[in-house]
Design brief:
Order of helices and strands: EEEHEHEEHHHHHHH
Strand content: 5-15%
Number of strands: 6
CATH superfamily of the largest domain: Glutaredoxin
InterPro entries: Glutathione-S-Trfase_C-like, Glutathione-S-Trfase_C_sf, Glutathione_S-Trfase, Glutathione_S-Trfase_N, GST_Omega-like_C, GST_Omega/GSH, Thioredoxin-like_sf
Protein name: Putative glutathione S-transferase
Strand order of the largest sheet: 4-3-5-6
Keywords: Transferase
Radius of gyration: 19 Å
CATH topology of the largest domain: Glutaredoxin
GO molecular function, one term: glutathione transferase activity
Helix content: 25-40%
Organism: Kribbella kalugense
């Protein structure tokens, strides 16, 4: 983490507050734009297979959601995938995993180039996931909560046969769970890790484990969070749980107990991990190298822990 990287996201009380999403365009089946055109007067881009590129880091839980949903819905041919290096330097996410250090489709070396092409005055943190229009090189959206919802609702014409219905007809219960899990768990681990005061850290820590206790009890008598059917909310929780023992427990000081010490949450996370699209999209090496090497204010030595043994997920 470069000096001051998160200054704009830290309050005077030491609490970490995640920045908003700068690009909130949507790719919608209701867009009035023709293929090849930009957004319509309501900011809706046309659904067009082969046009858009989803840029992700395999280390990032927010991006990992979109990787899983894209895979589950069978959208691999409709929306191409770009993977950045897990190590982010002062210039942001880099395409150093690609030949010559450039994305072969977008022709850029840093995701920030697409951000600045879209908004030359942008001075916030460059984030993934981002969907980039390959025709203009501009960012359509980095609105990670909406990206996965739209993959389910706007790209239905390109879903594979038998694709799961990740969004229930009545969303009220799921949306409440999503909000609670985001606040206390998904974002809560970051509020622990990036807190710069003891008070802010302990407040986030208490909220995190209080919510995990509630979820542990909820999963005592059901396979998924909403019963017997996999939903979007399960994916959102999974991408935090799969990183919990590897990085959040130690690196972010979320250490009341490990995931493996929650019987129901651990059994649930392992069940998900062993489903197609979940465990086969997890890269523990990239996850650990990103957190332990990039956040040098938290881990100045840059040493990456050897454990935990990933075989516990399938044994």
């Amino acid at each position: 983490m470069t000096p001051g990287q998160f200054v704009q996201e830290t309050s005077t009380a030491g609490e970490w507050k995640r920045q908003g999403n700068r690009f909130t365009g949507r790719i919608s089946r209701d867009s009035s734009s023709a293929p090849g055109e930009g957004p319509d007067d309501q900011g809706r881009w046309p659904v067009e297979p082969g046009r858009y590129r989803l840029v992700v880091s395999l280390a990032c839980p927010w991006a990992h959601r979109s990787v899983i949903v894209r895979r589950l819905l069978g959208l691999e041919d409709a929306i191409s995938l770009a993977i950045v290096d897990p190590i982010r330097d002062e210039r942001g996410w880099r395409f150093t995993l690609d030949p010559d250090g450039r994305d072969p489709v977008l022709g850029i070396s840093f995701l920030s180039e697409a951000y600045l092409r879209t908004d030359p005055a942008y001075d916030g943190r460059v984030t993934v996931p981002a969907i980039v229009d390959t025709l203009t090189g501009e960012v359509v959206t980095n609105d990670y909560p909406q990206i996965t919802l739209d993959l389910s609702t706007e790209w239905t014409d390109f879903h594979k046969p038998g694709a799961p219905q990740l969004i229930p007809a009545d969303r009220a219960e799921m949306d409440q769970l999503i909000d609670e899990i985001y606040r206390d768990v998904n974002n809560g681990v970051y509020r622990c890790g990036f807190a710069t005061s003891q008070e802010a850290y302990e407040e986030a820590y208490d909220a995190l484990f209080a919510r995990l206790d509630v979820l542990e009890e909820r999963l005592a008598d059901r396979e998924y969070l909403l019963g017997d059917t996999l939903r979007e909310v399960d994916i959102r929780l999974f991408t935090t749980l799969v990183r919990f023992d590897a990085v959040y427990h130690g690196h972010f000081k979320a250490n009341r107990q490990k995931l493996t010490e929650f019987p129901n949450l651990w059994a649930y996370a392992r069940r998900l991990y062993q489903l197609p699209g979940f465990g086969d999209t997890v890269d523990f090496d990239q996850i650990k190298r990103h957190y332990y090497v990039t956040h040098d204010n938290i881990n100045p030595t840059g040493i990456v822990p050897k454990g935990p043994d990933p075989r516990v997920w399938i044994s």
